[in-house]
Known about the structure:
Elements: H1 2-9, H2 20-31, E1 38-41, E2 45-46, E3 52-61, E4 64-73, E5 79-81, H3 93-98, E6 106-108, E7 114-120, H4 125-141, E8 146-152, H5 162-175, H6 180-189, H7 199-209, H8 214-223, H9 225-239, E9 247-250, E10 253-256, H10 261-278
Parallel strand pairs: 7-8
Antiparallel strand pairs: 1-3, 2-3, 3-4, 4-5, 6-8, 7-9, 9-10
Helix pairs in contact: 4-6, 5-6, 5-7, 5-8, 5-9
Amino acid sequence: MAGAVAAQTAPAPRKSAFDKAAFEAYIRHLLLYPKEVKVTVGDPRPSEVPNLLEVSTRAEAGQASEERTFLVSKDGSKIIRGEVFDINENPFKKDLDRLKTELNPSMGTPGAPVVIALFSDFQCQYCKQEGEALRRDLLKTFPTQVRVYFKDFPLTQIHPWAMPAAVAGRCVFRQKPAAFWDFHDWAFARQSELTEQNFDARFDEFARTKGLDTAVLKACREGGTARREVERSMAEGRALGVTSTPTLFINGRKIGGYLPFENLKQIVEFEANYQSTARNAGEACCTLQGPGLLNPPANPVIPKR
């Protein structure tokens, strides 16, 4: 009888964060991941913090995904959720290192102290609002302080003509870079009229009004190269934790969701002032040109800070 009582009161075995099944169960509870979400737990590896190891996780549901990094004590008993910063480096350096701006549509001043990378979707209503505000107000308010890069991130599961539009935009850019912004404005202005069924015909009308070679555009859209460029942009976005549109990176600072212009203005002013005192912006390293581009614009890589 005494043995039975002892068995009932014996402490539960200690769990370890290095047991991937235990770790997965723990963060599912912590982060409200339902069973439909696939969770992958990485192997522990050395971290930048002494006596702590680093474990990365990836959660996936359809095309949406997010990556997180946890710190774990060496005995596996404690998990730390948060970010580690090096005070000698820009706090957004990791994302800046992942952002690629070469051969992407851009507007504004090369080498500007504030660089915005915008992940967008032509069928997204909030992207339309963000894009219209950027085009209408940003360069008028900051004529020399800002450079903007457009990055494709079509949400194909819910927006049926977003991918065709992204590919069409890439083809316009490849044929005549400056005309991309005409396409950008046209697609958002007619967002409510465009459908998966009428997009091709309406796009051809746009191309003819802008004097673009429709035969070249058709070959580009069917050739696969432009689509692969869009898919690379999407993969880059997923690696940066982009799960919705619009998502902006302002000098590497990630801001998800629609950002009203007054809020954007405050952040740009803050960054411009910071860069002027920190001397931390640097100049654009180069002008990149690619085969097949006619009169390519200056496309500096985001300065590494």
